[in-house]
Amino acid sequence: MNKLKILLGILILVFAFLVGIIVITGKIPFIQNKTRLSIGIYEGDSPFQLFSHKNANNPVLTYKDVTDVKADFVADPFMVQEGGTWYMFFEVFNSKTHQGDIGFAQSKDGTHWSYQQIVLDELFHLSYPYVFKWENEYYMIPESYHADSIRLYQAKKFPYEWEFRKTLLKGRYIDSSIFHHDGKWWIFTATTIDNCTLRLYYAKDLDGVWVEHPKSPIVKEDANIARPGGRVLILNNKIYRFPQDDYPEYGNQVLAFEITELTTETYEENEIEESPILKTGKSGWNRYGMHHVDIQKNGEDKWIACVDGISRYYVLNLGSFYKRLSQYFIEIKKYLLGMSVGPSANRG
Question: What one-character DSSP code corresponds to residue 69?
Fold first, then answer.
């Protein structure tokens, strides 16, 4: 009978513990909510009015397509067209090493993609592989925040082999976005983990000396418009940047700003009327966010874009639950021991 009472008491305590956690946190303690990113293809008659491509079965690339490593997700796609073939570079989050590598896929029509392989793997996390062509050479600036630098890579054998060329800037920079304008190179880059600050640098040469713009930081204390969300677009001599909106949720949409004035002394920008240009879907692979876009011309009056979307899934995590439950009972034990020891300590 006593054993039954003890067992019943334990069950009541466990039940009370579960109910307490659910009420306080709104979460079931042994169910873990995770996010997963996938890649899609959009199209439009304008670069600022994009829709899911009618010939693409979105998402066109997911973690399941990665064949050479076990992956949690794929994200941050950039693409270029060379010799009639589209090449896409993107982050592959490696499940084993818990860091990002850079993978690539290819396509003949831009809508049906075939994953190829990891092309860049460092000892530190890589993402946001900003690929571009200059003077018939291909370069890449992946995010290398954990290496405390902005690193420039050059294709040794495009698209498979890349080699480190130079550190452009030292410091903790996020999603650096480079472009060439008016005879100079420019880089937008975020510099805070909370995604609230955007800085601007410029240099005469790609591997030259980089100087921070006198108006930098361009954005301060505004997570809605600071962190870069894709390739800078130059269209009809106008410059457009695409920030990801990271408040109140990370990567909930992509906005668009026209840079109306840019010199080594001045900077002005305005959000365009069509902004935001990417929003979450109603269900599925991009229901919980879209935070990246790379827009490319595709024919006379057509545009194509690679984007990424955020979904959520749930996993059973009994290990974490057991750990928290054990800590809970340890605290109860300490409390009960304290009650029993307390009065005797005062008798003397």
Answer: S
Integer angstrom CA distances of residue 133 from 91, 137, 263: 19, 6, 23
User: Is the per-residue pLDDT at 234 higher than 60?
Assistant: yes
pLDDT confidence of 348, banded at 50, 70, 90?
Answer: very low
**272 vs 263: CA distance, rounded Å:** 20
Residue with tokens 């950039």: 78
Q: φ, ψ for residue 68 (rounded to 5)? A: -95, -15
Hey, which bits of 23-126 come out as E strands?
31-46, 49-52, 71-82, 85-94, 99-107, 114-120
pLDDT tens readout for residues 266-307? 999 999 999 999 999 988 999 999 999 999 999 888 999 999
> Structural domains in the chain?
36-315 (2.115.10.20)
The model's pLDDT over 90-129, given as tens digits with 9 standing for 90+, comes to 999 999 999 999 999 999 999 999 999 999 999 999 999 9
Phi, psi of 195 (to 5 degrees): 60, 35
User: Average pLDDT of 208-219?
Assistant: 97
Contact of 247 with 254, CB cutoff 8 Å: no
Length of the chain: 348
- Largest pairwise CA distance in the chain: 96
As a dihedral over the C-alpha atoms of residue 94, residue 97, residue 100, residue 106, rounded to 10 degrees, the angle is -40
- What are the CA-CA distances from residue 36 to residues 68, 102, 322, 332 (Å)? 19, 17, 25, 38
Strand partners, 235: 238
Angle at 61 between CA 58 and CA 64, to 5 degrees: 120
Contact indicator for 141, 148 with CB cutoff of 8 Å: no
Q: Which residues of 232-244 are buried (b: 16+ CB within 10 A; e: fewer)?
A: bbeeeeebbbbbb
Nearest of 2, 21, 30 to residue 323 by alpha carbon:
30
pTM value > 0.70: yes
